[in-house]
Amino acid sequence: MAIFHAGFRFKSALDLLRDRPNTPERATHELTLQIALGPALQASKGWAAPEVEQACSRAFELCQQLGENPQIYSALFGLQAFYVHRAKLRRARELAEQGLSLARNSQDPGCCCRPAICWRITWPTSVS
After folding, report:
1. Where along the chain do its domains lie?
2. Interatomic CA distance for residues 124 and 49, integer angstroms
């Protein structure tokens, strides 16, 4: 029950942000809420719910807009999981590869861990 309330609160906060001017600060707040909303929706509506794709896609878009941001891995993971659960494996693999590419080019060696784990768990070598 608490997860439904959390999702409702995140959506309410996002509604309040819509009226704010489009600034980097607003985008940062929205990103935080979208990143939190994704897992709440996964738990309450299922990993393949269209709302999960919307939240994770928006979070990914905001990460690109704001520049280098470690939350991009959470957004990519959420999108990748969404597509795996929708059996859209090519798209999921593309996102995993994008996450690995970003991680390899990052100055933070620890950021490679999550995308690499997702890649190894999700992809047999025959998936292309």
Report:
1. 2-88
2. 25
Residue 73 CB-half CA count within 13 A:
18
Closest CA to 73 of 105, 96, 39: 96
Provide the token pair at 99.
């996450």
Two tokens at 27? 């985008």
> Is the pTM here over 0.85, yes or no?
no
Mean pLDDT per 10-residue section of the chain, whose length is 128 residues: 83 93 95 96 95 97 92 92 94 88 73 52 51
DSSP states of 2-57 = HHHHHHHHHHHHHHHHTTS---HHHHHHHHHHHHHHHHHHHHHH-TT-HHHHHHHH
The number of beta carbons lying within 10 Å of the beta carbon of residue 55 is 29
